[in-house]
């Protein structure tokens, strides 16, 4: 991941300029936070048509299947990986493995990855509707009984010692084999092969959480688009103080994404804080008020889109100037700096091999030592907005998270650096203000790099 982006990536039609490769500070610099970037509009960035997205998406898939999956299967000590799912009940990993355009697992779809002695993979499909490259068709037809028998024969002929299936108690992304299909698999296989079936949990998580160079480049562009739409929404082009509502702004964001052909994976929302709104140390969230936006309000939004298979998750803050103000009050600027300091203290604790729980504990200690009132709830991101990998705190649990929080940090993985700080605001008679930030970043094994920079300046509505 640390090698330069190659000309091959440029051939995919993916812009690389969005990626800011600046290491985050080990000791947070309040006055000069690194990786700050101002984006004013999504119009600064190209958006490929749905047709033109097919080639880069499939190029990234082929690269992953050829180079990444064999490595991950070897690490998981799996000789074979089975993806078996049905239309309307697709396995969570399914769409990350099939060429586009694919909209469903038509009828019953079976993918087989068989690791050969030389380390290469056979990529096989046992389907009524063959996929073609990169899959070799091992069987095609219309009889379900024959399909299951073909799968059983294929497995028996290759005689794998450990066969991974997607069953998991704790990870929904790795639990895609339904009970009905699991039973049909057992019915089809000779009894001697039943004991070779093992959970592919580790492989599924590593497959979903690991990012390639090409994906990071595409991801940076996607995050830039998301930040650009937020900047548009948090401006006088959209907001008329005293008239525009928070719901109006949320629906502007949703419609703007729709017009750009960028699917939102959750409904964006917009809230505000103002003098007199309750905010205490015990409250998880203070920015919950909705309605007409007035001058002097502090605004917050949370948005998420997907583009070129990469899903973003972004939270940013804005201030509506009063008629006698020409700049954001100093107390708010100081509070945002504290938010950036919290980000730096968190990212400084990213060390390969540390668990999410260990990173959280170290982050809490560092913030307490710095006198910062903070809450950390950072999560992996990628093919899903809430992706598998190390959970680093939950908004409703600032202690250890069993299992998911025990997962170690790996290089070449991406995260929504999410959390908040609370700080007394002198201009509001020392009422607490909450700064809620979420910026997408990746960890290259040594440093945390924000994919499209991060918010270090307030959005201003004049």
UniProtKB/TrEMBL annotation:
The segment(s) forming the Peptidase M24 domain are 221-422
User: Where is the secretion signal located?
Assistant: 1-27
Keyword Protease carried by entry: yes
Stored Pfam families = Peptidase_M24
| Top-level taxon of the source organism | Bacteria
Keyword vocabulary terms for this entry = Aminopeptidase, Hydrolase, Protease, Signal
A GO molecular function held by the record: aminopeptidase activity
Gene3D superfamilies, A to Z: Creatinase/methionine aminopeptidase superfamily (3.90.230.10)
Q: What is this protein called?
A: Xaa-Pro aminopeptidase
- What are the top taxonomic ranks of the organism? Bacteria, Pseudomonadati, Pseudomonadota, Gammaproteobacteria, Alteromonadales
């Amino acid at each position: 991941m640390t090698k330069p982006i190659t000309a091959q990536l440029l051939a995919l039609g993916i812009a690389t300029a969005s990626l800011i490769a600046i290491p985050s500070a080990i000791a947070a610099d309040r006055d000069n936070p690194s990786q700050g970037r101002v984006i004013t509009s999504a119009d600064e960035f190209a958006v490929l048509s749905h047709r033109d997205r097919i080639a880069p998406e499939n190029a990234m898939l082929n690269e992953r299947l050829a180079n990444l999956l064999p490595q991950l299967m070897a690490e998981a000590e799996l000789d074979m990986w089975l993806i078996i799912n049905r239309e309307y009940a697709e396995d969570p990993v399914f769409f990350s493995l099939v060429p586009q355009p694919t909209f469903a697992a038509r009828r019953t779809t079976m993918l087989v990855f068989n690791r050969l002695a030389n380390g290469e993979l056979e990529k096989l499909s046992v389907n009524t509707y063959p996929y073609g490259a990169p899959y070799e068709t091992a069987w095609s037809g219309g009889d379900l009984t024959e399909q299951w028998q073909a799968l059983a024969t294929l497995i028996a002929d290759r005689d794998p010692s450990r066969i991974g299936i997607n069953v998991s108690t704790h990870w929904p992304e790795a639990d895609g084999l339904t009970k009905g299909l699991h039973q049909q698999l057992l019915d089809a296989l000779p009894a001697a092969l039943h004991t070779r079936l093992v959970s592919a949990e580790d492989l599924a998580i590593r497959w979903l959480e690991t990012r390639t160079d090409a994906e990071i480049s595409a991801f940076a562009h996607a995050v830039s688009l998301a930040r650009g739409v937020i900047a548009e929404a948090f401006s006088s082009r959209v907001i008329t103080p005293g008239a525009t509502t928070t719901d109006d702004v949320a629906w502007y964001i949703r419609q703007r994404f729709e017009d750009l052909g960028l699917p939102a994976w959750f409904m964006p929302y917009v809230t505000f804080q103002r003098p007199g709104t309750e905010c205490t140390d015990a409250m998880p969230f203070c920015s919950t008020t909705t309605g007409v936006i007035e001058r002097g309000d502090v605004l917050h939004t949370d948005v998420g889109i997907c583009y070129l298979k990469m899903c973003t998750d972004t939270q940013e803050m804005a201030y509506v100037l009063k008629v006698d103000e020409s700049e954001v009050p100093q107390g708010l600027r100081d509070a945002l700096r504290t938010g950036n300091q919290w980000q730096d203290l968190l990212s400084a604790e990213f060390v390969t091999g540390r668990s999410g729980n260990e990173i959280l504990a170290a982050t809490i200690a560092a913030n307490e030592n710095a006198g910062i009132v903070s809450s950390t709830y950072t999560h992996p991101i990628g093919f899903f907005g809430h992706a598998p990998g190390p959970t680093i705190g939950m908004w409703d649990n600032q202690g250890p998270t069993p299992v998911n929080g025990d997962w170690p940090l790996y290089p070449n993985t991406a995260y929504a650096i999410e959390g908040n700080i609370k700080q007394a605001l002198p201009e509001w008679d020392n009422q607490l203000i909450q700064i809620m930030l979420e910026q997408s970043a990746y960890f290259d094994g040594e440093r945390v790099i924000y994919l499209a920079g991060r918010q270090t300046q307030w959005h201003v509505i004049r």
